[in-house]
Task: inverse folding
């Protein structure tokens, strides 16, 4: 039977019947996987927001505006972002990936294991610290703290 309140323990089923932990080693590795997925979620959200910012700039301003040069975008190529159709498609793909990861994180929390809850929240916080808490004054977008939005 599924737990309907938070509980502590090493026996937990996360997302699938086959992902069941029964030892401290498997439980620890599962928590580490939850942390990594949460950090990856924040990384992908940062890429999506930067793509949105770059696509809002037009191709002419992208090459002449000094603020565009300060945006760190190693996986986003400014010349490709200038193409409107490509940037909309890439934004939709990134949004879909982020939504899927966010909902999977939410469902893993719904295992009601306190360790999984703490691992996901800690991973989101670490990912935010690493990727989204920079001092970029140029990156002004509406920020949504919900992991599944």
Result:
């Amino acid at each position: 039977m599924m737990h309907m309140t938070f509980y502590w323990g090493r026996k937990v089923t996360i997302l699938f019947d086959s992902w069941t932990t029964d030892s401290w080693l498997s439980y620890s590795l599962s928590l580490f996987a939850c942390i990594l997925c949460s950090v990856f979620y924040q990384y992908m959200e940062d890429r999506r927001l930067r793509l949105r910012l770059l696509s809002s700039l037009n191709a002419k301003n992208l090459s002449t505006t000094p603020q565009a040069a300060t945006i760190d975008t190693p996986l986003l190529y400014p010349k490709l972002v200038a193409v409107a159709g490509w940037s909309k498609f890439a934004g939709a793909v990134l949004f879909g990936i982020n939504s899927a990861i966010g909902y999977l994180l939410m469902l893993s929390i719904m295992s009601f294991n306190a360790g999984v809850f703490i691992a996901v929240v800690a991973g989101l916080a670490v990912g935010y610290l690493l990727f989204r808490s920079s001092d970029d004054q140029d990156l002004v977008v509406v920020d949504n703290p919900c992991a599944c939005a």
Observations:
- The longest strand covers residues 12-13.
- The two ends are 29 Å apart (CA to CA).
- The chain is about 60% helix and 5% strand.
